[in-house]
Specification:
Elements (H helix, E strand, L loop, with lengths): L1 E2 L23 E2 L4 E2 L5 H5 L4 E5 L2 H14 L21 E4 L2 E5 L4 H17 L6 E10 L7 E8 L6 E6 L2 E6 L4 H10 L8 E8 L19 H13 L2 E5 L2 H10 L3 E11 L10 H22 L4
Parallel strand pairs: 1-10, 4-6, 4-7, 7-13, 8-11, 11-12
Antiparallel strand pairs: 2-3, 5-6, 7-12, 8-13, 9-10
Helix pairs in contact: 2-7, 3-6
This protein binds 1,4-anhydro-D-erythro-pent-1-enitol and uracil.
C-alpha cells in the first residue's frame, strides 16, 4: 500500500485520523501536555517555526541562541522546558519558534512527531515551517559541511519510508519541499564560513552495521564491501547519512507541514568510521545548522 497524498505546503496542520474528533480529551503523554490540562491555542497558536533535533541540550542551546538572534528582551538563559514533567523530550519556545528534541532514530522521532503534529493541530497553528537540525556522516564531503536534504532515501537509496501497520507494510513518500531547500541554500550565503550544499540524505535504522561501519560490536562484511556500498550511495546522490529523515519527511508531508532537513557532517564516511574530531570542534560543527536556520528565520521575519 502506498500513501502519497496530503502535502499542502502551508495552511493548517492536517491530521489524517478520523478517530481524533470523537475523543473528548487528547493526552500527549510523552510531551506531558493535553487538551484538557493545557490551553494549547493560547500556548502555541502563534508558532510559525518548529525546529527539532536529537539532543535536549542542543535544542535548549538553540532556543537560547534564537532568543539573542531575535533580539528578545532578557538574556534568554532561563528558558523553561515546557515538557519538564517528562524526561522523554525537551521543548522550549522563543517568540514564534518552538525547539524540541526527538532522541535518536526513527521510533523516537516518530512518537515525538505524532504528538507534536497533534499539538500544532489542537493549537490551530497555521503556515508552520518545520526543520530538523542535526548531525550526520558525510559522503564525499568535507567534515563540517552542512547538507540541506532535497530527498530523504532509505538504505536502498529509495525515496520511501516503510511503516508496518497492522502487520502490513505501508509505503510513504519522503520528498521534501524543494523551494524551502533552495531558500535555505540562499540563506547559507549569509553564513559563508562553512560549505553548504543540497543533496540526498540516507536514513538508516542503525548507526553501526546499518551505516556500513566496521567498528560496531557486530560486523558481517569486509572493508571492500563497505566501500563499494558507500560509493554506490554517493553515485545515487547521497551526500550524508543519519537516522530520522525518512520518517520526518513522510510524516510532515502527509500532515501538510513545509519541512526541511539540515544536518552537519561530522566526518567523511569515505575516509573512516570513528568520529575523531575534538569535542570543541564537534560543538562548533553542531552550531552550523543552527546559525543557518537563525539566518533563515530572521530573513523570514524581515529582521535582516
Ligand atoms: C545523527 O546522529 C545520531 C547518531 O549519532 C542520530 O540521531 C542521527 O540521525
Ligand atoms: N550521525 C549518524 O547517524 N551517522 C554519523 O556518521 C554521524 C552522525
Amino acid at each position: 500500500m502506498t500513501e502519497t497524498t496530503g502535502y499542502s505546503g502551508g495552511g493548517p496542520v492536517l491530521i489524517k485520523n478520523p478517530h481524533l474528533d470523537s475523543m473528548e480529551e487528547d493526552i500527549l503523554y510523552h510531551l506531558d501536555l493535553g487538551t484538557r490540562t493545557h490551553n494549547l491555542p493560547a500556548m502555541f497558536g502563534d508558532i510559525k517555526f518548529v525546529c527539532v533535533g536529537g539532543s535536549p541540550n542542543r535544542m535548549k542551546a538553540f532556543a537560547q541562541f534564537m532568543h539573542k538572534e531575535l533580539g528578545l528582551e532578557g538574556s534568554g538563559e532561563d528558558v523553561a522546558d515546557i515538557c519538564a514533567g517528562t524526561d522523554r523530550y525537551a521543548m522550549y519556545r522563543t517568540g514564534p519558534v518552538l525547539s524540541i528534541s526527538h532522541g535518536m532514530g526513527i521510533p523516537s522521532i516518530s512518537i515525538m512527531l505524532h504528538e507534536l503534529i497533534k499539538l500544532l493541530h489542537h493549537a490551530k497553528c497555521r503556515d508552520v515551517t518545520i526543520i530538523r537540525i542535526g548531525t550526520s556522516g558525510g559522503l564525499g564531503i568535507k567534515a563540517g559541511s552542512v547538507v540541506i536534504t532535497d530527498t530523504a532515501v532509505d538504505a536502498s537509496f529509495q525515496p520511501r519510508f516503510e511503516q508496518v501497520v497492522l502487520g502490513d507494510v505501508v509505503v510513504r513518500s519522503t520528498d521534501l519541499d524543494r523551494e524551502l531547500a533552495e531558500e535555505l541554500l540562499a540563506c547559507s550565503k549569509e553564513v559563508p564560513d562553512f560549505p553548504t550544499l543540497i543533496g540526498h540524505t540516507m536514513c538508516t535504522y542503525d548507526f553501526y552495521e546499518g551505516q556500513g561501519r566496521l567498528d560496531g560490536a557486530l560486523c558481517s562484511f569486509s572493508s571492500e564491501k563497505k566501500l563499494e556500498y558507500l560509493k554506490r550511495a554517493h553515485k545515487a546522490g547521497v551526500r550524508n547519512i543519519e537516522m530520522e529523515s525518512t520518517a520526518f519527511a513522510a510524516m510532515c508531508r502527509l500532515c501538510g507541514l513545509r519541512a526541511a532537513v539540515v544536518c552537519v557532517a561530522l566526518l567523511d564516511r569515505l575516509e573512516g568510521d570513528q568520529i575523531r574530531a575534538p569535542r570543541e570542534v564537534l560543538r562548533e560543527y553542531q552550531q552550523r545548522p543552527q546559525r543557518l536556520i537563525a539566518a533563515f528565520i530572521r530573513r523570514r521575519l524581515g529582521l535582516r
